[in-house]
Amino acid sequence: MNPQPLKIGIVGCGTAGPAAAILLRRQGHDVTVFERAAECRAVGAGFLLQPSGMHVLRGIGILDEVLNHAAKVECLHVLDADASTLLKLNYHELGGDLFGAGLHRPVLMHYLIREMAASRVDLRWGHEITTLRRNNAKWALGTSAGDEIDGFDLIVLADGARSRHRRQIRGGGVDRGYPWGAHWFIGANRGVFPENELYQVVDGTRRLGGFLATGRDLDCGEPLVSLFWSIRLADDEAWRRRPLDDWKSEILSLCPKAEVLLGQIHDWSQVMTARYGDVRMRRWHDEGIVALGDAGHAMSPQLGQGVNLALADAACLAECLAHHPPHRALRHYQYRRRLALGYYQFATRWLTPWFQSDHEWLAPLRKSLFAVSMRIPPARKLMTLSMAGMIGHRR
Fold first, then answer.
1. Going by fewer Cβ within 10 Å, which terminus of the chain is more open, N or C?
2. Nearest partner of 32 among 8, 13, 14, 15, judged by Cα
3. Domains along the chain?
4. Does the pLDDT of residue 302 top 90, yes or no?
């Protein structure tokens, strides 16, 4: 373990921030997390926790409790508009007892925050960091309240895809975003969608519906399911000016079994809009500063890796700091993460237009490509490894 405790400031309390805070505090570092929200409020639809993310939560010590609330997902099942199977990937293809876990986002947040408290991490709600200033090899953080907090040896940026501070890293990076996003809603499943599948239905490249069983909330009530409906972001406002039933009819024409779920939506205010980041950075660190999670590499959720990559980032950073002085640790972090992050960024950018774009001519090619790939064991296994977050993953 690094014998020299560091004063570390973490900007953001999403996934990467809390995980890094817990692991670094356990190494003896003085860790403060700054979150602009006034209170704990997990934002976003359900997500699929992959074996790579489970590995990190197991190390933190909260995996079993988290999985108690999850739906055990054994496969990805994508249907074409004619109800034929376009793609089906099973975790058992990888051997062992690997599976995915559909999870309600507040569940993970609850256990991470509880563990931060147990680890005596200094968590400051309502602290929006507006400036970062480097002075004499230390960092000072300015808040929206006009305060300045200084003396930090290391700053961890974990403030998401819209990070205002990644420009502090040479090269800065850019968020190009995507013209397509999704409407999403979380409701009671009521036995309609299979809990062991990530269930998707597609029609060309313009219409896509996803239904992910996400287990139970913290109160262990009814099993939940998250709906994702692909939209062109430029059309979002126009849709919201139309009757809600028009939107429901569009979904039901592709997936009639969604009727029970859609019946729980009574107003447009219940339907959220997700916008996808596409953050590109040449490097994720500079002197005394490093970007984790979406702050460094936000991507479309086509491969469902956001939370899992964020957790792996946090674990990798902690391991590097445990064995190297800070300046070498950050370089080693870059080296260790380059394969996995490079692969998933490339794969996501390549895959997204095949499911969310105006390129309808891709649909027949997609059907042929997947039909061939599913019959070639190495190709099928590569797709399954990609889904499970195992590319570039170290156990």
1. C
2. 8
3. 7-44+106-176+278-356 (3.50.50.60), 70-103+179-275+360-390 (3.30.9.10)
4. no
Q: Give the confidence band of 272 by pLDDT, cuts at 50, 70, 90.
A: very high
CA nearest neighbour of 216 among 345, 102, 384, 85: 102
- When pLDDT is cut at 50, 70 and 90, the band that residue 395 belongs to is low
pTM of the model: 0.95
Are the CB atoms for 288 and 29 separated by under 8 Å? no
Q: Which residues contact 47 (CB under 8 A, 6 or more apart)?
A: 102, 103, 105, 212, 214, 304, 306, 307
Q: What is the spatial distance between Cα 177 and Cα 206, in angstroms, rounded to a whole number?
A: 18
SS (H, E, C) 211-247: EEECCCCCCCCCCEEEEEEEEEHHHHHHHHHCCHHHH
d(CA 238, CA 276): 19
Residue 109: per-residue pLDDT:
95
At residue 95, the pLDDT reads: 83
Longest dimension (CA), the chain: 64
**Rounded-to-5 percentages of helix, strand, coil across the chain:** 40, 25, 35
Tokens of 133: 């200033």
21 pLDDT band (50/70/90 cuts)? very high
The answer to whether 292 touches 317, Cβ cutoff 8 Å, is yes
The span from the CA of 152 to the CA of 7, in Å, is 5
**31 near 24, Cβ under 8 Å?**
yes
Contact 63, 351 (CB under 8 A): no
User: What CA–CA distances, in Å, run from 147 to 13, 38, 122, 140, 309?
Assistant: 20, 17, 17, 10, 33
Beta bridge partners of 37: none
